[in-house]
Design the sequence.
DNA sequence: CCTACCGATCGGTAGG
DNA sequence: CCTACCGATCGGTAGG
């Protein structure tokens, strides 16, 4: 409900009703609305930023790493677009507080990825004019917003113009292009287009 | 105030105070809060989507067009990041209503751009595997979110870690990388790196 | 453009 | 986990 209506827009009344209890009962589990918020986003950021370093370790080659992180991250957010929406809303609502969380939870693996990119540049596999930190930031932005608002903006790339905005999953066509943009803006020579493009219509 | 706190988060009381009048006086100009919202976003979308076709006409060559649209769009949103924030919030808050507005205001020039891209593909200047509509959607997502949340996420690419999140303008380093990602994911051969990169630090 | 005021809903508490 | 209730604030109106 935070994802759909925002923090102030989602009342404790509504949230409690959705869980099947009354408002005071909800406030027994989370003594304040603010605490409920913290619980939600802490869980979210933790899940996300614990997954990334694990993937980075698992994969070996540069291209393989890119691939694994791209797949895993997009899978994580595609599985539930509300995850991206909540993060995006928090980023908009409380930039200062989120800055701290980003430093703690995101910065470490963002730096890790940046270093891999620099190594790739030395080896000539990655475009020399890539700005590693800025690239990582841009791609996070791209993935987050694409998943979060695909039901409205994403319909620009929809085959059949359905009247209702599908709130469900992001179309494979958009995912494929996001991965392509990320890869082609990074690597000098595109090797195997190993990412799943089965959903592509064109 | 809609940009900073969201529609429900920004009270008519606060808005009126910011303008220097009382709440009922504000409701004289906009008979309802909903009408104030419509007025704000209609003005915003109109400005943006009137500018794009004009630029597309003005520039002639493909590379020149890309360049002009990129510069103009980034300039428009960089001049006031709140513009991007409001649009992003509306996209999150009311996807269905925004879908209609997008069809009317954005679809026309998005199609225009997509056709230019297809022409570029026939001429071999644009990567063959670009999905035109999906690419336009992705880049809009990239620009909107990058400008909107640069004060929090964007600090991943900040040189000196200032404690406060600067709410002002987006750092040139991020802008340069956004333009580079957009261009290198589109064109086969990067010609003149004509976009301003004077602010780049590395 | 103002003062005064409305019912509704908000987050949260008392007390069981 | 509930009923009952609190003060504060919300969008909006009456009337000038």
Sequence:
């Amino acid at each position: 409900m935070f994802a759909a209506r925002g923090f102030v827009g989602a009342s404790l009344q509504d949230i409690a009703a959705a869980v099947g209890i009354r408002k005071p009962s909800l406030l027994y589990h989370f003594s304040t609305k603010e605490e409920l918020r913290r619980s939600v986003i802490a869980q979210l950021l933790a899940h996300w930023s614990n997954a990334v370093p694990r993937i980075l370790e698992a994969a070996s080659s540069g291209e393989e790493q890119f691939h694994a992180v791209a797949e895993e991250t997009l899978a994580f957010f595609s599985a539930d677009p509300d995850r991206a929406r909540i993060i995006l809303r928090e980023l908009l609502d409380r930039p200062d507080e989120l800055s701290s969380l980003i430093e703690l939870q995101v910065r470490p693996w963002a730096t890790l990825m940046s270093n891999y990119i620099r190594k790739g540049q030395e080896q000539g596999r990655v475009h020399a004019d890539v700005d590693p930190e800025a690239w990582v930031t841009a791609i996070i932005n791209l993935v987050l917003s694409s998943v979060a608002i695909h039901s409205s903006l994403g319909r620009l790339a929809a085959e059949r113009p359905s009247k209702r905005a599908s709130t469900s999953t992001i179309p494979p066509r958009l995912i494929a292009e996001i991965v392509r943009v990320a890869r082609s803006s990074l690597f000098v020579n595109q090797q195997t287009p190993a990412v799943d493009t089965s959903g592509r219509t064109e």
User: Anything to note?
Assistant: Residues 192-202 of chain B have pLDDT under 50 and may be disordered. Chain B touches chain A through 61 residues (CB under 8 Å).
